[in-house]
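Notes from the 1:1 (GR / supervisor)

We went over the backlog. Supervisor wanted to see one worked example end to end before approving the batch request, so GR pasted a single chain during the call. The sequence is below; no edits were made to it. Supervisor asked that the structure be written out right there so they could see what the output format looks like.
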Amino acid sequence: MAITNFIEGAWDIYKNNFKMPTGVGNVLSDVILYAEEKQTYFTIKDAKISVKKSNDLKSTSLISHKGSVKELIQAKDYEVKISGTLIGEPDALPFATLAKLNKVLNESESILVASTYLATFEIFRLAFKETTFDQGTTVNTLPFTLVFESDNTYEFDLSGKEVKKQLRLIK
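Structure output shown during the call:
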């Protein structure tokens, strides 16, 4: 299956210091979103991706001094924005493509993602937050931006000694 090859390719690139494999699509800019529960995927060709990392900080003001003391509470998940354009037949809006994208985004669990760029941040699962559709420049295009938060699978040791981060890939 093409999705498995792409995911394995993206993971291999990460593990092998970004040596590009052959036959896995455009490894630089293609993104594949895979809904495991629905067994369906959506490919975003020539995607533009931005990744934002932030922390929760507690600031305490100083009396008689400028500034404040910052305390790191915790690192937040990555915020991931993926932009692209849906393209339909000439003179027609891309309704079928939009329906396929929505099927993946309506997944009740996090979505598996295959992207060489996101693999550099060890991001392989995304939780969908929101999307924006903009007016296209032609009748058959529909530009969009998807917003996600990175998601990981965790295994908790009930003795409280250890938390393991797991990577789940398609078999």
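Supervisor's comment: The two ends are 10 Å apart (CA to CA).
Batch request approved.
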